[in-house]
Write a structure and sequence with these properties.
The chain has 113 residues and is an alpha+beta fold. 20% of the residues lie in helices and 22% in strands. The protein has a five-stranded antiparallel sheet with strand order 1-2-3-5-4, covered by helices on one side. It binds guanosine-5'-monophosphate and zinc ion (ZN).
Length: 113
Amino acid sequence: MSNCLFCRIIAGEIPSTKVYEDDTVLAFRDIAPQAPTHILVIPKAHISGVSAITGENSHIVAHIFEVIPQIAAAEGLSQGFRVVSNCGDHAGQTVHHLHFHILGGQQLSLQMA
Ligand code: 5GP
Ligand code: ZN
């Protein structure tokens, strides 16, 4: 997906501050952090969002959720963190490549909407 921002970050065409990488997952710092720690965890395969998770690709999502606690531990988020994925227009998804926000480093608001 040459016109996808996160595919271009994976390809190295757009720089990012990487915090984790393996064969299937990349994690990097959000360019506009909403908390002291704000990391995006994405699959290297282009999946448009949570609505596009299927039995065919859910193993990638499972792997992402294995990696998330490792990143949180490496970032020192021992007091907790939040994992968020916005899906679709009503949720405010702006990049249509599946991503999970890791937010932490301070007491987070409980506001849901
Ligand atoms: P969404 O709004 O789709 O849930 O999340 C997209 C996120 O990507 C936003 O938090 C936004 O700040 C982040 N973002 C957008 N463009 C870039 C970029 O070029 N580099 C990085 N590191 N983050 C980006
Ligand atoms: Zn993509």
